[in-house]
Amino acid sequence: MRAERRISAPRVRARAWACAVVAAMSVLAGCGGQGTSDAPTGPTGAARPTGAAASSEAPPADVNPPVSPGRNPTDQPSRPTLPPAREPVLHVRGEYTYTVRILDARIMTDVPDDPPPAGTKALGLLLRVEAEPRDRAVHAPYANLGIDYASLKADKDQHIGSVIDSATPYLTEDQLLFGDDGVAGIDPVFGTLPANTVYYHWVWQIVSEKADLTGASLCEVRLSGRNCIPVGAIAPAG
Predict the structure, then answer these.
(1) What is the pTM of this model?
(2) CA-to-CA distance for 222 and 90, rounded, in angstroms?
(3) Distances in whole angstroms, Cα of residue 12 to Cα of each of 19, 141, 144, 188, 206
(4) Is the dihedral of CA 98, 102, 107, 110 positive or negative?
(5) What are the average pLDDT values for consecutive 10-residue runs of the chain, which has 238 residues?
Protein backbone atom coordinates (compact mmCIF):
# COMPACT_ATOMS: atom_id res chain seq x y z
CA MET A 1 0.00 0.00 0.00
CA ARG A 2 1.08 3.57 -0.55
CA ALA A 3 1.52 4.29 3.15
CA GLU A 4 4.00 1.43 3.49
CA ARG A 5 6.08 1.90 0.35
CA ARG A 6 9.65 3.13 0.01
CA ILE A 7 10.34 6.17 -2.11
CA SER A 8 10.49 5.48 -5.82
CA ALA A 9 13.30 6.29 -8.24
CA PRO A 10 13.01 9.83 -9.68
CA ARG A 11 11.91 10.67 -13.22
CA VAL A 12 12.81 13.64 -15.39
CA ARG A 13 9.69 15.57 -14.29
CA ALA A 14 10.90 15.48 -10.67
CA ARG A 15 14.04 17.41 -11.67
CA ALA A 16 12.04 20.05 -13.57
CA TRP A 17 9.55 20.28 -10.71
CA ALA A 18 12.32 20.90 -8.16
CA CYS A 19 13.71 23.73 -10.29
CA ALA A 20 10.27 25.26 -10.71
CA VAL A 21 9.65 25.28 -6.96
CA VAL A 22 13.04 26.88 -6.25
CA ALA A 23 12.41 29.47 -8.97
CA ALA A 24 9.09 30.34 -7.36
CA MET A 25 10.83 30.81 -4.00
CA SER A 26 13.55 33.12 -5.38
CA VAL A 27 12.91 36.87 -5.19
CA LEU A 28 14.47 38.49 -8.24
CA ALA A 29 15.19 42.19 -8.56
CA GLY A 30 13.17 44.05 -11.21
CA CYS A 31 14.89 44.92 -14.48
CA GLY A 32 14.45 48.30 -16.12
CA GLY A 33 14.21 48.97 -19.83
CA GLN A 34 17.27 49.47 -21.96
CA GLY A 35 17.53 52.50 -24.17
CA THR A 36 19.57 55.47 -25.32
CA SER A 37 19.43 59.09 -24.24
CA ASP A 38 19.53 62.28 -26.26
CA ALA A 39 20.84 64.31 -23.31
CA PRO A 40 23.85 66.60 -23.88
CA THR A 41 27.35 65.18 -23.45
CA GLY A 42 28.42 67.82 -20.94
CA PRO A 43 27.04 69.05 -17.61
CA THR A 44 24.06 71.38 -17.91
CA GLY A 45 25.16 75.02 -18.14
CA ALA A 46 28.87 74.18 -18.59
CA ALA A 47 30.78 76.53 -20.88
CA ARG A 48 31.93 75.03 -24.17
CA PRO A 49 35.40 75.79 -25.57
CA THR A 50 35.39 77.90 -28.73
CA GLY A 51 37.67 78.50 -31.69
CA ALA A 52 40.91 76.55 -31.82
CA ALA A 53 40.29 75.07 -28.40
CA ALA A 54 37.07 73.52 -29.64
CA SER A 55 38.92 71.56 -32.32
CA SER A 56 41.68 70.29 -30.01
CA GLU A 57 39.84 69.52 -26.80
CA ALA A 58 37.18 66.84 -26.28
CA PRO A 59 34.07 67.96 -24.38
CA PRO A 60 34.24 67.18 -20.67
CA ALA A 61 32.82 63.79 -19.61
CA ASP A 62 29.49 63.85 -17.84
CA VAL A 63 30.11 63.08 -14.16
CA ASN A 64 26.56 61.75 -13.79
CA PRO A 65 25.48 60.26 -17.14
CA PRO A 66 21.73 60.01 -17.68
CA VAL A 67 19.98 56.80 -16.67
CA SER A 68 17.46 55.03 -18.86
CA PRO A 69 13.86 55.46 -17.65
CA GLY A 70 12.81 52.88 -15.07
CA ARG A 71 16.34 51.85 -14.19
CA ASN A 72 18.39 52.57 -11.07
CA PRO A 73 22.08 53.29 -11.71
CA THR A 74 23.06 50.91 -8.91
CA ASP A 75 20.97 47.97 -10.18
CA GLN A 76 22.88 44.73 -10.71
CA PRO A 77 21.57 41.34 -11.91
CA SER A 78 20.36 39.38 -8.89
CA ARG A 79 21.61 35.85 -8.35
CA PRO A 80 18.85 33.50 -7.18
CA THR A 81 19.58 32.08 -3.76
CA LEU A 82 18.35 29.32 -1.50
CA PRO A 83 16.73 30.11 1.85
CA PRO A 84 19.07 29.90 4.85
CA ALA A 85 19.23 26.50 6.52
CA ARG A 86 17.15 26.27 9.67
CA GLU A 87 18.38 25.13 13.05
CA PRO A 88 18.90 22.63 14.61
CA VAL A 89 20.68 19.92 12.61
CA LEU A 90 19.41 16.32 12.41
CA HIS A 91 22.30 13.86 12.85
CA VAL A 92 21.31 10.54 11.27
CA ARG A 93 23.18 7.50 12.61
CA GLY A 94 23.43 3.97 11.27
CA GLU A 95 25.33 2.17 8.52
CA TYR A 96 25.85 5.60 6.94
CA THR A 97 26.02 8.81 8.95
CA TYR A 98 25.01 12.20 7.62
CA THR A 99 23.38 15.48 8.62
CA VAL A 100 20.09 16.94 7.44
CA ARG A 101 18.91 20.55 7.68
CA ILE A 102 15.58 22.01 6.54
CA LEU A 103 15.62 25.08 4.28
CA ASP A 104 11.93 25.37 3.41
CA ALA A 105 8.61 23.73 4.22
CA ARG A 106 5.39 24.15 2.23
CA ILE A 107 2.03 22.56 1.50
CA MET A 108 1.80 21.14 -2.03
CA THR A 109 -1.15 19.91 -4.03
CA ASP A 110 1.00 18.83 -6.98
CA VAL A 111 4.10 16.63 -6.81
CA PRO A 112 5.92 14.74 -9.57
CA ASP A 113 4.47 11.54 -11.02
CA ASP A 114 1.93 10.68 -8.31
CA PRO A 115 -0.23 13.64 -7.13
CA PRO A 116 -1.85 13.48 -3.68
CA PRO A 117 -5.22 11.66 -3.82
CA ALA A 118 -8.51 13.44 -3.07
CA GLY A 119 -8.76 14.39 0.59
CA THR A 120 -4.98 14.62 1.00
CA LYS A 121 -2.11 17.02 0.33
CA ALA A 122 1.66 16.84 0.55
CA LEU A 123 3.96 18.47 3.08
CA GLY A 124 7.17 19.20 1.16
CA LEU A 125 10.57 19.94 2.68
CA LEU A 126 13.68 21.28 0.95
CA LEU A 127 16.61 19.51 2.64
CA ARG A 128 20.35 20.10 2.81
CA VAL A 129 22.29 16.84 3.14
CA GLU A 130 25.96 16.33 3.92
CA ALA A 131 28.02 13.30 4.89
CA GLU A 132 29.32 13.19 8.46
CA PRO A 133 32.31 13.23 8.48
CA ARG A 134 32.44 15.27 5.26
CA ASP A 135 35.35 13.32 3.72
CA ARG A 136 33.32 10.11 3.30
CA ALA A 137 30.91 9.14 0.54
CA VAL A 138 27.45 8.27 1.85
CA HIS A 139 24.32 6.48 0.73
CA ALA A 140 21.32 8.27 2.25
CA PRO A 141 17.93 6.79 1.32
CA TYR A 142 15.02 8.84 2.62
CA ALA A 143 12.84 5.92 3.56
CA ASN A 144 14.74 6.34 6.87
CA LEU A 145 13.05 9.69 7.56
CA GLY A 146 9.47 10.64 8.31
CA ILE A 147 7.44 13.71 9.25
CA ASP A 148 5.65 13.45 12.59
CA TYR A 149 2.78 15.79 13.46
CA ALA A 150 -0.09 16.20 15.89
CA SER A 151 -2.84 14.31 14.02
CA LEU A 152 -0.68 11.64 12.34
CA LYS A 153 -1.96 8.66 14.32
CA ALA A 154 -5.60 9.60 13.76
CA ASP A 155 -5.07 10.37 10.06
CA LYS A 156 -3.18 7.23 8.98
CA ASP A 157 -4.90 5.17 6.28
CA GLN A 158 -4.05 3.46 2.98
CA HIS A 159 -2.72 6.74 1.57
CA ILE A 160 -1.20 8.32 4.67
CA GLY A 161 1.82 6.78 6.37
CA SER A 162 4.56 7.88 8.72
CA VAL A 163 7.57 7.91 6.34
CA ILE A 164 8.68 10.14 3.50
CA ASP A 165 6.54 9.29 0.49
CA SER A 166 8.91 10.35 -2.31
CA ALA A 167 11.79 12.66 -3.23
CA THR A 168 13.53 14.42 -6.10
CA PRO A 169 17.16 13.66 -7.04
CA TYR A 170 20.02 15.06 -4.98
CA LEU A 171 21.48 18.19 -6.60
CA THR A 172 24.31 20.58 -5.83
CA GLU A 173 23.32 24.20 -5.17
CA ASP A 174 24.29 25.33 -8.67
CA GLN A 175 22.40 22.42 -10.25
CA LEU A 176 19.31 23.25 -8.24
CA LEU A 177 19.42 26.97 -9.04
CA PHE A 178 20.76 26.99 -12.60
CA GLY A 179 20.62 23.47 -14.04
CA ASP A 180 18.29 22.59 -16.88
CA ASP A 181 16.23 19.43 -17.36
CA GLY A 182 19.33 17.65 -18.63
CA VAL A 183 20.84 17.61 -15.13
CA ALA A 184 19.90 14.19 -13.80
CA GLY A 185 21.16 14.54 -10.24
CA ILE A 186 21.78 11.59 -7.93
CA ASP A 187 19.10 8.98 -7.34
CA PRO A 188 17.64 9.33 -3.80
CA VAL A 189 17.26 5.56 -3.36
CA PHE A 190 20.18 3.88 -5.10
CA GLY A 191 22.66 6.75 -5.54
CA THR A 192 25.85 7.54 -3.64
CA LEU A 193 26.70 11.08 -2.55
CA PRO A 194 30.41 11.85 -3.13
CA ALA A 195 32.51 13.11 -0.24
CA ASN A 196 33.06 16.80 0.51
CA THR A 197 29.93 17.93 -1.33
CA VAL A 198 26.67 19.43 -0.05
CA TYR A 199 23.47 18.26 -1.73
CA TYR A 200 19.90 19.50 -1.77
CA HIS A 201 16.59 17.92 -2.67
CA TRP A 202 12.87 18.04 -2.04
CA VAL A 203 11.09 15.34 -0.09
CA TRP A 204 7.39 15.11 0.67
CA GLN A 205 4.93 13.13 2.72
CA ILE A 206 1.23 12.68 2.03
CA VAL A 207 -0.95 14.05 4.84
CA SER A 208 -4.67 14.50 5.35
CA GLU A 209 -6.18 17.62 3.81
CA LYS A 210 -7.27 18.56 7.34
CA ALA A 211 -4.07 17.45 9.07
CA ASP A 212 -3.05 19.27 12.23
CA LEU A 213 0.58 20.11 11.43
CA THR A 214 1.15 22.07 14.64
CA GLY A 215 4.68 21.41 15.88
CA ALA A 216 5.54 19.07 12.97
CA SER A 217 8.96 17.40 13.18
CA LEU A 218 11.31 15.62 10.78
CA CYS A 219 12.42 12.40 12.45
CA GLU A 220 14.77 9.51 11.89
CA VAL A 221 12.64 6.36 11.67
CA ARG A 222 13.93 3.74 14.07
CA LEU A 223 12.63 1.13 16.46
CA SER A 224 13.39 2.90 19.72
CA GLY A 225 13.86 6.46 20.89
CA ARG A 226 13.26 9.68 18.99
CA ASN A 227 15.68 11.68 16.91
CA CYS A 228 13.84 14.67 15.48
CA ILE A 229 14.18 18.31 14.51
CA PRO A 230 11.32 20.83 14.24
CA VAL A 231 10.03 21.59 10.74
CA GLY A 232 9.32 25.23 11.58
CA ALA A 233 7.15 27.60 9.54
CA ILE A 234 5.10 25.94 6.79
CA ALA A 235 4.07 27.99 3.75
CA PRO A 236 0.52 27.41 2.50
CA ALA A 237 -0.23 25.99 -0.94
CA GLY A 238 -0.22 28.60 -3.65
Answers:
(1) 0.73
(2) 14
(3) 11, 19, 24, 13, 21
(4) negative
(5) 48 62 54 38 44 50 55 67 96 93 96 90 97 95 91 94 94 89 86 96 96 96 85 93
